[in-house]
């Protein structure tokens, strides 16, 4: 028995010395110390050993097991250290190299301008509402006092899906839908994308954005409109900004006006920005036409209101002194990150 244990011990230690990786070590462990290993078979033969020799043989088996386990653990630790050393060499980091720069996104000039406009009107008690971009001809034209064959339809250069459905040319349909669903008082702004068959150039695009506002209540007058837009202009372009109203015509408002603001670049003295006039046109407005109120289910004898509309791109172009509208849609990071 003693000779057999010494042979097992010497063979196991020799194989451990010759092993080259962790898989081979595991195979040796199983071969000698596993449930069907050679040392386990020796233990099973203890029943054939005389009672007086069993303690001595048992001690020899335990010593052999301890020697094999110690050698396995020592070799395992050596392999682990070597693998760690190789890993550190392979994954070495040069701390003198510059760090990788993380590119952070930036708000588009349109988004910056829209956030500013919404902040101003929400501060005045307005609600932001939205509507469909694919709209019925009724809401886009007829409900706004623009019937069939009206010349304003030609001026809009509309994209027709069929004779009854269009890509909206303004966000005014959202105002009509709001008046149909909500009883006065109404104070809303309707920002959104609109579509017109325009040629692309420095100031035009077939797809752009508008912000339209609507107020309906008892006793609303043109003075309320002027005061609202004067405050809006001061908040947007600076406290010294003044407004000027010029008579105009829109089918859905009466009376109607175009609104100019003093040039925020030169303060009204005249410069390249305002083409020497001291004034810059920014939006159109007027008192809601009684027919529009009546078609939306509101009694014009009891209620009155005003509406206005401004191009979001126009605000961004003016506020940030951008010369070409096409720059807004080219997604050039060099341009966008300036804002």
Automatic annotation (TrEMBL):
One of its GO terms (cellular component) is cytoplasm. Its EC number is 6.1.1.20. GO terms for biological process: phenylalanyl-tRNA aminoacylation. Residues 117-330 form the Aminoacyl-transfer RNA synthetases class-II family profile domain. Binds 2 magnesium ions per tetramer. Pfam families: Phe_tRNA-synt_N, tRNA-synt_2d. InterPro entries: aa-tRNA-synth_II, aa-tRNA-synth_II/BPL/LPL, Phe-tRNA-synth_IIc_asu, Phe-tRNA_ligase_II_N, Phe_tRNA_ligase_alpha1_bac, Phenylalanyl-tRNA_Synthase, tRNA-bd_arm. It comes from the Bacteria. Its cofactor is Mg(2+). It is found in: Cytoplasm. Mg(2+) binds at residue 254. Gene3D superfamilies: Bira Bifunctional Protein, Domain 2. CDD domains: PheRS_alpha_core. Keywords: Aminoacyl-tRNA synthetase, ATP-binding, Cytoplasm, Ligase, Magnesium, Metal-binding, Nucleotide-binding, Protein biosynthesis. GO terms for molecular function: ATP binding; catalytic activity, acting on a protein; magnesium ion binding; phenylalanine-tRNA ligase activity; transferase activity; tRNA binding. It catalyses: tRNA(Phe) + L-phenylalanine + ATP = L-phenylalanyl-tRNA(Phe) + AMP + diphosphate + H(+). NCBIfam families: pheS. Tetramer of two alpha and two beta subunits. Belongs to the class-II aminoacyl-tRNA synthetase family. Phe-tRNA synthetase alpha subunit type 1 subfamily. This is Phenylalanine--tRNA ligase alpha subunit. It comes from Hominifimenecus microfluidus.
């Amino acid at each position: 028995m003693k000779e057999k244990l010494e042979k097992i011990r010497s063979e196991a230690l020799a194989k451990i010395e010759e092993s080259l990786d962790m898989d081979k070590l595991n195979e040796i462990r199983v071969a000698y110390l596993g449930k069907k290993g050679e040392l386990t078979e020796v233990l099973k033969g203890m029943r054939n050993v005389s009672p007086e020799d069993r303690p001595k043989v048992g001690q020899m088996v335990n010593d052999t097991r301890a020697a094999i386990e110690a050698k396995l653990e020592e070799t395992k630790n050596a392999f682990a250290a070597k693998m760690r050393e190789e890993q550190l060499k392979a994954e070495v980091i040069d701390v003198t190299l510059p760090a990788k720069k993380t590119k952070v996104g930036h708000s588009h000039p349109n988004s910056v301008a829209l956030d500013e406009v919404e902040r101003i009107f929400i501060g005045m008690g307005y609600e932001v509402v939205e509507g469909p971009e694919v709209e019925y001809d009724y809401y886009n034209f007829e409900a706004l006092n623009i019937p069939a064959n009206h010349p304003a339809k030609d001026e809009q250069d509309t994209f027709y899906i069929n004779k009854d459905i269009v890509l909206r040319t303004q966000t005014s349909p959202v105002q009509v839908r709001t008046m149909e669903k909500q009883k006065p008082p109404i104070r809303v702004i309707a920002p959104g994308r609109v579509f017109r068959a325009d040629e692309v150039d420095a100031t035009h695009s077939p797809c752009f954005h508008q912000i339209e506002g609507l107020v309906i209540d008892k006793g609303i007058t043109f003075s309320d409109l002027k005061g609202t837009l004067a405050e809006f202009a001061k908040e947007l372009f600076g406290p010294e900004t003044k407004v000027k109203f010029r008579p105009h015509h829109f089918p859905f408002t009466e009376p109607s006006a175009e609104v100019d603001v003093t040039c925020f670049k030169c303060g009204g003295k005249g410069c390249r920005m305002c083409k020497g006039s001291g004034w810059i046109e920014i939006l159109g407005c007027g008192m809601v036409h009684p027919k529009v109120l009546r078609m939306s289910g509101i009694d014009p004898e009891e209620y009155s209101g005003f509406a206005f509309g401004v191009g979001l791109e126009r605000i961004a172009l003016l506020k940030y002194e951008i010369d070409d509208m096409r720059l807004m849609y080219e997604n050039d990071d060099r341009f966008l990150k300036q804002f």
